[in-house]
Amino acid sequence: MNSSLPQVRRTAVYVYQAPLRAWHWINALSITILAISGYLIGSPLPTLPGEASDHYVMGYIRFAHFAAAYVFVIAFLFRIYWAFAGNRYSHQLFTLPFWRASFWHELIHEVRWYAFKETEPAKYIGHNPLAHLFMVVIITVGGLVMIVTGFALYSEQTGLGSWQDELFGWVIPFVGQSQDVRMWHHWGMWVIVVFVMLHVYTAIREDIMSRQSLISTMISGWRMFKDDRP
Amino acid sequence: MPTTETYYEVMRRQGITRRSFLKFCSLTATALGLAPTFAGKIAHAMETKPRIPVVWLHGLECTCCSESFIRSAHPLVSDVILSMISLDYDDLIMAAAGHQAEAILEEVRHKHAGNYILAVEGNPPLNQDGMSCIIGGRPFVEQLLEMADSCKAVISWGSCASWGCVQAARPNPTRATPVHEVIRDKPVIKVPGCPPIAEVMTGVLTYILTFDRLPELDRQGRPLMFYGQRIHDKCYRRPHFDAGQFVESWDDEGARRGYCLYKVGCKGPTTYNACSTIRWNGGVSFPIQSGHGCIGCSEDGFWDKGSFYQHVTDTHAFGIEANADRTGIAVATGVGAAIAAHAAVSVYKHAQDKKGDDQA
Fold first, then answer.
1. Which of A40, A148, B13, B257 is most exposed by smallest CB count within 10 Å?
2. Helices (H), B244-323
3. Helices (H), B184-252
4. Residue limits of the Cytochrome-c3 hydrogenase C-terminal domain (chain B) (predicted)?
5. Would you call B244 and A57 a contact, using CB atoms and an 8 Å cutoff?
6. Binary contact (A55, B244; C-beta < 8 A)
């Protein structure tokens, strides 16, 4: 009797452990705050009337930016720690199998899937190769660039001799001058904004169209596969 | 008895009273950020120490550094420092000319070997064998290297000597090169600005005399006491910045009320100089106080950083001029449209596949 009903067997793997999921969402929140407040530092809100002592708008916006930046950095450091402490999928963000031919074959397959040239995507327990590449380049390398340039700019107000200056002050003459650092930090924001757009879209799309779960995985940690085929 | 006159002797000879002299000492101590007790030390140094011979060379420049220097607010400074330097070499203001003038250089080089300060205004062009700047019939770069050989230290006056300034702006046809890229074996103190503030210039010289050492420099070789903070950090309009009150366009109500000039392109937040504290023309004013944003004239390559009236400036890369915000918004919009199109096709495909599955 039951055999007449369509049967879908789902297998599941526990991929994202709780600390990693927490990191993901904290990271998402801090990036959102950083992008919005950062944009408003570059292009401030319209002028407010009244005395200067009545308002502290730029002060609050900058505070939000710096506070979120510290959260982002501490989360980033935690994430590096978790690459060692977590399960076998946790170090994917910091490693790229650049010399493995299969990685690039699978990556091309994934690109073809997005270009509607493949009828079916492959199954991956961790990131698919395309996502993997993007994660390493944007989140790890890009995040690091934003942290370094960000602290260099922050050191301008903490002043010479502050630990931010000792650690990151060299970045300013290395890049050129303060304005150049600002400009590249600004470009970095747009790169991350575009990445977030793609990331959210592909996560939703793959959740519906691929053979595995994505969004629920980042909430529960379990990767569900929709079929048993390889 | 020292072979060379002390500063104090020169000052007295110039008719400066002791009272004015002491005023100068305490003013300088304050300008250098020293404790009040240092005024005495400065006075003592000026009374007892022989002058440091200074040779002031001019390369590719507009002479605005010298113009600023001779307009030094404190009359004492202009009188004294000016007479002091004219004793040695400064082709702009010395009496000697031609071969006589060049002979002085030779003399200083041998008599004060290892002791004199080489102050350089402007920079040497290196293209066409340095032919774009000829002094005494020879390329300036030759004179510069010759004099640098036996000097004690080099002071790069102004943005030309420090960074290259306008003649080094893209595409820099003469390959005007900052002094520190030509002289590599001597300490170089950069005193950038277009021009630098007069009191900063005299302050640096006074420091070297008083303490017999070069002032502490930052990573880029600028004296910390004058270039340790940004214009923005000490700007009197900073409360308007923090409050989010900006001049939105010229001649608006905000401009009349003296709001922050950030939105009309003020480079105060990215410029290291002492304008907002020492100010100009005897502390009368400085650009921001006069209602115009800082153009960042003491920063490296300020001519090539886009408009003076734009805060988020253009990016010059691969020959393309792009503004981060304009490009960013355009790309984000494009990607958004692409996502929407891709999503539409995906929905269509998905629906088709579903139909296929149902039929199967």
1. B13
2. 253-257, 275-278
3. 198-211, 224-227, 238-243
4. 227-308
5. yes
6. yes
Would the pLDDT of B31 be above 80?
no
Q: Is residue B293 a contact partner of residue B308, using CB atoms and an 8 Å limit? A: yes
Higher pLDDT, B44 or A68: A68
Out of B244, B324, B332, closest to residue A45 by CB: B244
Residue A165 pLDDT more than 70?
A: yes
For residues B271 and B193, give the distance between their C-alpha atoms in angstroms, rounded to a whole number.
10
How much is the mean pLDDT over chain A? 91
Choose from B163, B267, B346 for mutation: most chain A CBs within 10 A: B346
Bridge partners, residue B197, by sequence: none
Write the single-letter amino acid at A214. L
**Radius of gyration, CA atoms only, chain B:** 27
| Of A43 and B32, more confident | A43
* C-alpha–C-alpha distance, residues B187 and B257, integer Å: 45
**For domain B232-311, which architecture applies?**
Irregular (4.10)
Domain layout of chain B by residue ranges:
7-227, 232-311, 323-359
Q: Model confidence at B74, in pLDDT bands (50, 70, 90)?
A: low
Q: Which fold has domain B7-227?
A: Rossmann fold (3.40.50)
Phi and psi for B119 in degrees, rounded to 5? Answer: -95, 125
> The tokens of B41 are what?
């030390």
Q: Cβ of B228 and A43 within 8 Å?
A: no
Phi first, then psi, for residue A219 (nearest 5°) are: -100, -50
Q: What ranges do the domains of chain A cover?
A: 86-225
Q: Residue B180 — φ and ψ, nearest 5°?
A: -70, -15
Instruction: Out of B246, B324, B353, name the one closest to residue A187 (CB).
Output: B324
User: How far is it, in rounded angstroms, from Cα B96 to Cα B315?
Assistant: 48
Band (B77; pLDDT cuts 50, 70, 90): low
Neighbours of B334 (CB within 10 A): 11
Q: Is B233 on the interface with A (CB under 8 A)?
A: yes
Question: Span B115-142, mean pLDDT?
Answer: 92
> Residue A35 burial by CB count (10 A; 0-12/13-18/19+): exposed, middle or buried?
middle
Backbone angles phi and psi of B249, in degrees to 5: -150, 160
Q: For residue range B181-213, what is the model confidence (pLDDT) as tens digits?
A: 999 999 999 999 999 998 888 888 878 877 888
Task: Tell me the C-alpha distance between A86 and A81, whole Å.
Answer: 8
Tokens standing for residue B317: 């890369």
What is residue A150's three-state secondary structure? helix
What's the ipTM?
0.88
> Residue B154: in which H helix or E strand, if any?
strand B153-157
